[in-house]
Amino acid sequence: KIDSGDDAKKYFDLLSNSGYKCKVIIYPGFNKRYSCQHFYNDMAAVSSGKLIWTMPEDSEIIHGDWYKHLIKTRDCFKDNIYYVSIPMDNGKGSKQIIGAPAVSREWYNVQHQLSCMPNNDRWLHEIAKETKRRIILKEEELLMHFPVGRRVLSKQERKDVFYPAVKKTTKVFLKKIKDY
User: What's the whole-number average pLDDT of the chain?
Assistant: First the structure.
């Protein structure tokens, strides 16, 4: 995810020369951070890998072999429906485990989306925690840096809208997992 259109060519060139297979999706800057879920949902729909990592372009890996640690999460659950929490340093002296998660292809196949909320990282984390489908990598294995951001939803919006939606979605997700 690239937030600035000014940087798009730089990242496109970087990806094109990387040797990795990639797809580039360009979006207008509508509603900025309030529309991230649309991008991530579309990205997941066109992706083809076994893991979908919601890593924005302004984050960086401080240390750790990301590929090795993410790929070893495969088969931790018999049906491979899971979420991976990657430790991050937010620059405020504290570590967090929510900032740029990854989910399995199977997770996406069951849900058919990553998130219906703009704070998709918290959305995925809460559902994974409630369904006990969460793998938390250790800081010694992989650590990212993520710039200090701002909350997308207010405390009141989280209380009135976000958490009731998480509860409802978790219940539906658990039923879908049983039927998968």
Answer: 87
